[in-house]
Amino acid sequence: MAGTYRADSAPTQFVASALARYGYRELGPEGDIPVVLLQRFRGTIDDWDPYLVDLLSENRRVILLDNVGVGSSDGTSPSTVKEMGDGLADFLQAMNLPQIDLIGWSMGGFVAQLFALDHPDLVRRVVIAGTGPGEPSIRPVEDQRSVEIRAKVDLDIPDILFIFFPDTDEGRAAGIEVLGRCYHHESGEILTVKEESWKNQAEAISRWNSGDGSAWSRLSELRVPMLVTAGAQDVMEEAVQAFETSRQVNGLSSTTIFSNSGHAFLFQHAERFASTATNFLAGN
Predict the structure, then answer these.
(1) Total domains in the fold of the chain
(2) pLDDT tens digit string along 56-70?
(3) What is the CATH number of the domain that holds 214?
(4) Which of 26, 109, 171, 275 has a Cα-to-Cα distance from 78 of 20 to 30 A?
(5) ∠ CA(160), CA(161), CA(166), 5° rounding?
(6) pTM over 0.85
(7) Count of H helices and E strands in the chain?
(8) Strand order in 123-129's β-sheet?
(9) Burial class (CB within 10 angstroms; exposed 0-12, middle 13-18, buried 19+) of 181
(10) What is the rounded (10 degree) CA torsion for 214, 219, 220, 221?
(11) Whole-Å CA distances, 211 to 81, 93, 110, 139, 179
(12) Residues of the domain holding 191
């Protein structure tokens, strides 16, 4: 049964290019510069909160992308963040999009940072959420339970609640509310990431967090305005990294920390995140 959000009825479309046949969904009014959403580790276009997507697309054209080897797109995910950015560039060329705004969540935030550095002509503004710049000296040790959960083939509801929401009664209740509105696309399918792809993604994340090919040493070169957002109780990508990221950027970064929220703060506080991100992308 289809859900109650416009995002639940947005059809999956396809475009073929050099690296893959990409699956994507698009909604919102036509405009010159769309907002492209980049997903987390093991996330597909089905893993976006439809309420958040509806809010973001009220006044902007929004594109949800399955990158190479993810969900509805063919191929296999690469094992470096840079190659993930190559996939985004390939998709934009196929779509004939000369410039975009970016919202990258978690691993998608890794890709967004590096893509803005490598392709400043293609990106107007960037929002990163629940992510880090790839510098081990400023990244606190990840919660051991979080590490164990990320390595599982199948996650149960308690696992999902722990890694994405605060480990409190209030946080778990918020997580159940978010999950209740997700995964109701009219197609009846729930897209997944095949094991070969998510294992490559895990390798890319490990490399990034060790500083191998990350954005950290280059952030001072960034010429694209960037909004850095984080959840104060994030057990995977702790919020201290948001402050350190902004401190590395030369005057082009703003930072917003969402209290009482975990890794999925952008879903938990969808209205506040959408307002914050939309205003920033509009130049306000």
Answers:
(1) 1
(2) 999 999 999 999 999
(3) 3.40.50.1820
(4) 26
(5) 140
(6) yes
(7) 10, 8
(8) 13-16, 21-27, 62-66, 35-38, 100-105, 123-129, 226-231, 253-258
(9) middle
(10) 90
(11) 12, 29, 12, 11, 33
(12) 6-281
Rounded to the nearest 10 degrees, the angle between the axes of helix 81-95 and helix 107-118 is: 70
69-112 pLDDT, tens digit per residue, is 999 999 999 999 999 999 999 999 999 999 999 999 999 999 99
Which amino acid makes up residue 275?
S
Kindly state whether residue 94 falls inside one of the protein's structural domains. yes
Structure tokens at 142: 């990840």
Q: What is the Cα–Cα distance from 158 to 59, expressed in whole angstroms?
A: 35
Asked whether residue 1 is assigned to any structural domain, the reply reads: no
Give the separation between CA 219 and CA 60, rounded to whole angstroms: 28
The answer to whether residue 263 is domain-embedded is: yes
- One-letter amino acid identity for 65? L
DSSP strands (E only) in the chain = 13-16, 21-27, 35-38, 62-66, 100-105, 123-129, 226-231, 253-258
* Residues 8, 25: Cα–Cα separation, whole Å: 10
Cα(245)–Cα(19) distance, integer angstroms? 31
Q: Distance of CA 104 to CAs 4, 181, 182, Å?
A: 25, 21, 19
3-state secondary structure at position 93: helix
